[in-house]
Structure formats: structure tokens, C-alpha cells
Design a protein that fits this description.
Length: 86
């Protein structure tokens, strides 16, 4: 069972935060993950470095995102892959 690598998780969550933050269906998720999403974006854009704490925030946000979608981690590479799956 393939898993999404850390860089792809950060990229996908960053894309979600930038491209979907104005959509009402995601509002509760964005409120709860008010640190994980911008951290994922900042890491994906090379603004901040990888640390164990950063990895913890992003992995928790990723798990909650998949849970909210009712999806299993199938080794996604982009937000389009993930959203098309659901």
C-alpha cells in the first residue's frame, strides 16, 4: 500500500490552503488546522526547513484531511489526484 511522501503531503496541503480557503465546505477544517496548513505551504515553498515538529503538524493535518474525505492514503502526488479520487 503506497503512502504519500512528506514533500507531497506538504505540497497538497499547501495547495488546499491557497486554492480552497474561501470555500465554505472546508471552513471547519481550516479553522482547526490553522497552523498545519500554512506550515505545509511554507515548507512546500521552501520558506521554512524540515524539523520533527513541522513533520508532526503536517502529518496530523494530513491524517485529518484524509479522514475528512473518507480516503485511504494511496500515494498521492497532487491535490488533483486526491480530489479526483473522492
Amino acid at each position: 500500500m503506497p503512502k504519500t511522501d512528506f514533500d507531497s503531503k506538504a505540497l497538497i496541503l499547501g495547495q488546499l490552503w491557497i486554492n480552497y480557503k474561501a470555500e465554505d465546505e472546508w471552513i471547519d477544517f481550516f479553522i482547526y488546522n490553522d497552523l498545519g496548513l500554512p506550515l505545509a505551504f511554507a515548507f512546500a515553498e521552501g520558506i521554512i526547513n524540515h524539523t520533527p515538529t513541522l513533520e508532526q503538524y503536517i502529518n496530523e493535518t494530513w491524517d485529518l484531511f484524509l479522514e475528512g474525505l473518507g480516503s485511504e492514503d494511496e500515494g498521492f502526488e497532487s491535490i488533483q489526484d486526491l480530489l479526483e479520487e473522492n
